[in-house]
Write the structure tokens for this entry.
Amino acid sequence: MLSSVEFSTLGLETYLELIETGEIDTVMCATPDPYGRLVGKRLTVQAFQALCLDGHGVHATSHMFATDIELNSLELPVSNSANGWADIRLVPDLTTLRRIPWEKNTLLALCDVYESDSDDLLAVAPRSILKAQIERARQAGIRLKFASELEFYLSRTPHKEAWKTGYRDVEMLSSYRSDYQMLQSSRDEWFIHQIRTMMPEFGISVESSKPEWGLGQHEITLDYCDALEMADRHVLFKHGIKELAYKADLTPTFMAKPSINDVGSSCHLHVSIWDENTGSPLCWGDNGMSTTFGSFVAGQMKHAVELGLLFAPTVNSYKRFLPNQFAGGAIALGLDNRSCAFRLVGAEQSFRVENRIPGADVNPYYAYSATIMAGLDGIEWNLPAPAIFKGNAWEGPQMEFMTTSLHSSIDRFAQSSLARSAFGDDVYEHILASSRSELLAFDSGVVTDWETKRYYERV
């Protein structure tokens, strides 16, 4: 990753100038939901002034945090039939106010979520969850910087047609493997160029783009920044790519494994730690890991599997963890070694660890929180720096591996004393209940193509 580049968002003075000149007539007030999607309302500028600048925020229902991905209601403590799916307040974080390059008359503000009748953050909202872990790190004198490295697939089948076919036999952008290939890069530049140029206008600093190994697969690398800002950029980036793709009659997917016959899409998480007071890096020691960073990495490795649910949240996530596919399934630490779940890269101020476990379907607020709580635990217990693994980690003796099903990850998370203590009972139980409902929907609500083909005539 390059050094952090700060892309300015709009201050109130600029906002008022845009309103005065009539350039803006809509403000999108949105917050990430449990699946990393933006939810909220579009306001007129008059309503934004009255509700958000002069008032106490935008009222909405807590139901948005108590549904499955299909918006089926879940009976969760935050929102249920007994409490009438009570209201919450969306309060814009004005440091996130930005123009939307592909909607010239619209601004976007990310919102924190508050209880309707108090000044307390709604604990189970993703932004609230990450803020709580960042505060724990701050109290320990640590500031964290992250970068998400996202992969995704693009199909030239328009999304309405793809939906009608159940996403079967969609036509991908490339016809053959083209990892790093400049020819395929040139073919797709008409669209990828929009991402590289518009994302900085959207307040998201982009380092590079390249074709990936899968058919129609691309990777975009984002510059690093502070934890909350990076999680926000991650969600906005995915939202922006989807909007741009739909406008171009392309169908994108951030599924972890859209096809069992093709490579999965990852979200490599790069993280470094810094002194909260001086701003100096804490990762590099005498020609390698500092003692503090060694403990931070050791904590991540120790708790990677029990917190795996926060890195691999869907049934589909676990299709990535196949041997020799660079998917981070082997819990080892390597020096620039892609067979390991944790990979050390860079040197001195750029020295960092890359977590290769998450797929592109990850909720960054959950994944960053898991990284922080595990790393802090390692520091608190002064865990020794892990040994550097050499060779193919998938063939390492007595190697621990990521769980290979959502069943197993839920079971491990349900036994995690670290997750319960770091999250608090309410957040911990909320995530666990939501994940169990997702698993139940798959186990009890679907007959797969595999089952039909295997059993239809033969049993």
The two ends are 54 Å apart (CA to CA).
